[in-house]
Q: What sequence folds into this?
């Protein structure tokens, strides 16, 4: 196994983050439980009739996924900044954008991917037919990737701000709105049996856009946040 | 060749320039806006479909155009500040944000007032209105991020990154009426070629837009001067100026 080079760097970061998450499983589950609770609120608030819920199910699932990913962003950078690891990373001379990208990828594996896997069951609870499951999971997979990237930029900007969680939501949610629009629309189209190629391609394009430029914005923001 | 660029980055020079230019911008803007208002309210013929209600477009369209233009100015100033490390560019970006937010609110409010007689509703989740609302949130987020840092330099750099990231929304707002089939009117004055609007209705619109731009320049002069006063309050040149004035 190669012990030097950028590939090894990324693997080390991912392994570290997964190991740290394994020591705090409860923190990994909290956003997922939040996702389930938010989706439960809507039948209570609107109507328990599955026919009515079916119409709003794509939107509800997507909004709940956005809010759950927002909650999970708290633990993305804050622990590392607080104990000084991030400062070492900034000073290390390694490409900070790659290090932070690796962290965001791990974050997606621990938050976004479970959301994608949970979504068919939660969708069924809101009356979604089984035929929509592939579209639902595909759009959420692409969408949560974009949410993690954008959230990473927002988290890097606000990590040194006292009580910055609401500010994080304020900054990240407007930027995430296009992702929400295309994602919810795709699932809605699938529920009506129409082709989802358009929104799905746009979601993929957004993900590629954010993944290609996001790490540089994250690195610049982290440098600003970490310097004292 | 770059002398003017670096001269502008000097706070005393920029302060003097802003003081000098501001009255010109302001009074020219007032004259143009009054002239355009007269043209739009009195001289322009009533629309055959919308009668006289369309006249609010003389405030709505320039405000909406300015809301996007000010964001681009803000993003460019932020980029200049980050790339060339010019503190004054950050001051300009900070000065632009509230003005841009105000233009966005005016655009949304006048659009809402326009929409009631035209479409029968105060609000619609139409792509252009929604993306303009996102624009307002971007401005507010920028101002909130700036306010959350105590240190001016860190506030400058963090909010500059946010401004640059957010500029991606500007083309989305502009092309939202082209990309989506929407309730909002398709572009009429920015098409290349023969415009879809008759000259007697168009000239007050262009004049009002120019007036708004000059008004923005005047307000920017005032706000940049305040920013300079706040940031350079301990500088020697400022204490000298205050003593002699």
A:
């Amino acid at each position: 196994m190669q012990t030097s080079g950028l590939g090894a760097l990324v693997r080390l970061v991912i392994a570290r983050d997964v190991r740290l998450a394994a020591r705090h499983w409860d923190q990994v589950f909290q956003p997922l439980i939040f996702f389930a609770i938010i989706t439960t609120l809507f039948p209570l608030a609107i109507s328990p009739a599955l026919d009515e819920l079916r119409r709003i199910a794509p939107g509800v699932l997507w909004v709940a996924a956005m809010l759950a990913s927002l909650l999970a962003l708290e633990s993305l950078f804050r622990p590392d900044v607080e104990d000084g690891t991030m400062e070492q990373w900034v000073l290390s001379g390694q490409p900070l954008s790659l290090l932070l990208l690796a962290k965001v990828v791990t974050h997606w594996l621990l938050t976004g991917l479970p959301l994608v896997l949970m979504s068919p069951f939660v969708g069924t609870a809101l009356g979604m037919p089984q035929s929509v499951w592939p579209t639902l999971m595909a759009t959420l997979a692409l969408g949560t990737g974009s949410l993690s990237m954008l959230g990473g930029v927002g988290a890097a900007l606000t990590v040194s701000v006292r009580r910055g969680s609401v500010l994080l939501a304020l900054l990240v949610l407007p930027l995430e709105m296009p992702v929400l629009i295309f994602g919810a629309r795709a699932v809605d189209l699938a529920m009506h049996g129409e082709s989802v190629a358009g929104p799905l391609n746009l979601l993929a394009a957004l993900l590629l856009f954010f993944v290609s430029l996001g790490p540089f914005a994250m690195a610049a923001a982290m440098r600003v946040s970490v310097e004292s | 060749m770059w002398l003017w660029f670096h001269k502008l980055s000097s706070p005393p020079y920029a302060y003097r320039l802003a003081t000098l230019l501001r009255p010109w911008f302001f009074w020219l803007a007032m004259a143009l806006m009054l002239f355009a208002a007269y043209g739009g309210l009195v001289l322009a013929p009533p629309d055959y479909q919308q009668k006289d209600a369309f006249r609010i477009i003389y405030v709505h369209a320039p405000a909406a155009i300015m809301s996007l233009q000010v964001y681009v100015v803000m993003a460019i100033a932020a980029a200049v500040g980050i790339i060339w490390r010019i503190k004054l560019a950050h001051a300009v970006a900070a000065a632009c944000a509230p003005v841009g937010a105000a233009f966005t609110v005016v655009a949304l409010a006048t659009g809402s007032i326009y929409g009631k007689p035209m479409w029968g509703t105060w609000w619609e989740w139409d792509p252009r209105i929604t993306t303009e609302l996102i624009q307002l949130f971007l401005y507010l987020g920028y101002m909130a991020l700036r306010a959350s840092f105590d240190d001016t330099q860190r506030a400058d750099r963090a909010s500059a990154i946010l401004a640059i990231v957010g500029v991606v929304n500007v083309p989305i707002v502009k092309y939202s009426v082209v990309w989506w089939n929407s309730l909002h009117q398709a572009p009429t004055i920015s098409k290349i070629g023969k415009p879809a609007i008759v000259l007697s209705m168009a000239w007050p619109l262009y004049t009002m837009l120019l007036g708004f731009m000059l008004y923005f320049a005047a307000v920017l002069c005032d706000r940049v001067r305040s920013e300079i006063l706040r940031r350079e309050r301990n500088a020697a040149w400022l204490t000298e100026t205050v003593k002699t004035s």
Observations:
- Residues 32-43+55-228 of chain B form one domain.
- Chain B has one domain: 32-43+55-228.
